[in-house]
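ok, trying the design again with the full structure, not the truncated one.
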């Protein structure tokens, strides 16, 4: 069934015809301008404080963060985290060019495949698109180099994120995504899926008892690459 057929069926169910011209123009204008919502003052701070806020919020939501100086240190950081959690040195890696170019050979004990995750994968290493400081949230748009399955199926998810990709508020993350997804043919398009991940999966639906890993990863670990000089801690 085509999109037009689906929308026509919805209109029939609502007993409503096409929108009047003035209402259609109003809605199209709203979609084109992307009006911004309220941006919390707590996210409007200098860059070092923004990164510190992001880390505090990640940890508050049961995630963990390891800061490293450069991307070349990612394999060692992954190996250290897996060892600290008593996990096997095996994982599925996002087929992302930036991640695949890292010096994994320097840690020969690590075993990985670059692909989508499967139900049998215990650990995934994902490429982080953006970090949102106001809530310690990761924005993970789906694409061929960032499969959504890596965010859902593995019990432990490790996300490699650049400090330069940490922004203050949700609105700024959406602004960045829209800028990068604009093309001259359609005027812009969104990914099939955009996941906003705040800490590991958890639920307290049963007897108000918090259970981690209820419907996704039990552990969320972020390896934060300090690639932004303006965001480094003040000495």
């Amino acid at each position: 069934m085509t999109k037009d057929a689906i929308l026509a069926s919805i209109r029939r169910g609502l007993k409503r015809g096409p929108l009047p011209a003035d209402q259609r123009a109003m809605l199209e204008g709203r979609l084109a301008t992307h009006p911004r919502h309220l941006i919390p003052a707590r996210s409007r701070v200098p860059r070092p404080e923004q990164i510190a806020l992001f880390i505090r919020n990640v940890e508050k939501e049961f995630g963990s963060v390891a800061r490293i100086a450069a991307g070349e240190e990612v394999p060692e950081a992954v190996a250290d985290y897996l060892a600290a959690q008593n996990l096997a040195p095996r994982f599925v890696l996002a087929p992302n060019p930036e991640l695949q170019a890292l010096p994994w050979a320097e840690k020969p004990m690590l075993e990985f495949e670059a692909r989508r995750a499967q139900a049998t994968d215990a650990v995934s290493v994902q490429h982080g698109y953006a970090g949102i400081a106001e809530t310690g949230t990761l924005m993970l748009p789906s694409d061929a180099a960032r499969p959504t399955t890596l965010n859902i199926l593995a019990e432990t998810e490790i996300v490699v994120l650049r400090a330069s990709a940490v922004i203050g508020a949700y609105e700024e993350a959406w602004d960045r995504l829209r800028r990068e997804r604009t093309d001259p043919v359609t005027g812009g398009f969104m990914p099939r899926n955009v996941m906003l991940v705040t800490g590991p999966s958890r639920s307290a639906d049963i007897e108000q008892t918090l259970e981690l890993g209820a419907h996704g990863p039990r552990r969320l670990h972020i390896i934060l690459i300090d690639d932004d000089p303006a965001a480094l801690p003040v000495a």
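Keeping the full-length input from now on. The chain has a mean pLDDT of 89.
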